[in-house]
Automatic annotation (TrEMBL):
Native organism taxonomy: Bacteria, Pseudomonadati, Pseudomonadota, Gammaproteobacteria, Enterobacterales
Family membership noted in the UniProt record: Belongs to the peptidase S49 family.
UniProt-listed NCBIfam families: PRK11778.1
Subcellular localization(s) per the UniProt record: Cell membrane
Organism: Franconibacter daqui
Protein name: Protease SohB
Matches recorded under InterPro entries: ClpP/crotonase-like_dom_sf, Peptidase_S49, Peptidase_S49_N_proteobac, S49_SppA_C
Basic and acidic residues compositional bias, start-end: 71-85
Domain Peptidase S49 N-terminal proteobacteria intervals: 2-158
Length: 349
């Protein structure tokens, strides 16, 4: 009986050690994974291959059963030959024979705070590291605008491509307004869908004030500043006419900088005509010189595929559960603000 008891105790100790080792290994693995994904991941997708696969799937679906079997038989033979040739090239240290230029496709779906610029920065850095003189970049842009400093930085990232003489095309399928257009105008060419919203070269700021509500409830707010214009308008204090005037002056200065930037990027524009804060649909925007061509990004990509290797480049970060929740809430707020903005500007179809 004692022998059985001691043997059981021995097994329990072994099991405890094994469990402890598993826990330690799991912790080390999690830390390693966290470090690995701390900076994010660059995803590169060959769009030519995706399109070719889609074409083949549709073509095969239209064949009868006998033809489908024959096609699959020939396809397996072809794939085997290609794999054999690729293996032979690899042994000789040769790369795949392709003299085509590359079209790098980037996506920017901007929010009010333009936090997506962090990924855009990494994507452009990656493209600049490998781009050849004959390569081009296509940015599929969608943004109603937002904070000045965020979209100013996004525009500066696109300027890096122009500084390296890499042709940049911006395609607007839905909306590129205000800060979105600030980004778009950096491009060598702007392509827009017929009813894409473009323009809104203006600056807006709205500040609620609760001072009278607080006074009615005998609540005092003290605001201490050093510097005459450290705070012009406040949420809770009593605003002055001098503060309002300074606030409007700052808005006008920002608008002037915005106009100068657009004029520098697109010198043929009549800036005083288009910098009124209004927006236009694609066809109207083309007439005013805000865009160069009416076309969707899909048509543009399909047109380039026979001549170029079309590659999608995306930089993504692994999000924590809380980040996913707050990100979803922020996207919902962005959509709500965009809906209000559209309703206030023009009727919806």
């Amino acid at each position: 009986m004692d022998l059985v008891y001691e043997y059981g105790l021995f097994l329990a100790k072994i099991a405890t050690v094994v469990v402890a080792l598993v826990i330690v290994i799991s912790l080390i693995s999690n830390v390693a994974q966290r470090k690995k994904h701390q900076r994010g991941e660059l995803r590169v997708t060959r769009l030519n291959e995706q399109y070719k696969t889609m074409q083949e799937e549709i073509a095969v679906a239209l064949l009868d059963t006998h033809q489908q079997k024959q096609w699959h038989k020939e396809q397996k033979k072809k794939e085997k030959q290609e794999a054999k040739a690729a293996k032979a090239r690899a042994k000789r240290g040769e790369s795949a024979p392709s003299g085509k230029a590359t079209l790098y496709v980037l996506d920017f779906k901007g929010s009010m705070d333009a936090h997506e610029v962090a990924s855009l920065r990494e994507e452009i850095t990656a493209v600049l590291a490998v781009a050849k003189p004959q390569d081009e970049v296509l940015l599929r842009l969608e943004s109603p605008g937002g904070v000045v400093h965020g979209y100013g930085l996004a525009s500066s990232q696109l300027q890096r491509l122009r500084d390296r003489n890499i042709p940049l095309t911006v395609a607007v399928d839905k909306v590129a307004a205000s800060g979105g257009y600030m980004m778009a105008c950096v491009a060598n060419r702007i392509v827009a869908a017929p009813f894409a919203i473009v323009g809104s070269i203006g600056v807006v700021a709205q500040v609620p004030n609760f001072n009278r509500l607080l006074k009615r409830n005998d609540i005092d707010i003290e605001l201490h500043t050093a510097g005459q214009y450290k705070r012009t308008l406040t949420l809770f204090g009593e605003n002055t006419e001098e503060g309002r005037e300074k606030f409007r002056e700052d808005l006008n200065e920002t608008h002037q900088l915005f106009k100068q930037f657009v004029q520098t990027m697109r010198p043929s524009l009549d800036i005083n005509e288009v910098a009124t804060g209004e927006h236009w649909y694609g066809l109207q925007a083309q007439e005013k010189g805000l865009v160069d061509e009416i076309r969707t990004s899909d048509d543009l990509i399909l047109q380039q595929m026979p001549q170029k290797e079309v590659v999608s480049v995306r930089y993504t970060r692994r999000k924590k559960l809380m980040d996913k929740f707050t990100g979803s809430a922020a996207r919902s707020l962005d959509r709500l603000l965009l809906r209000w903005w559209q309703r206030g500007e023009k009727p919806l179809l």
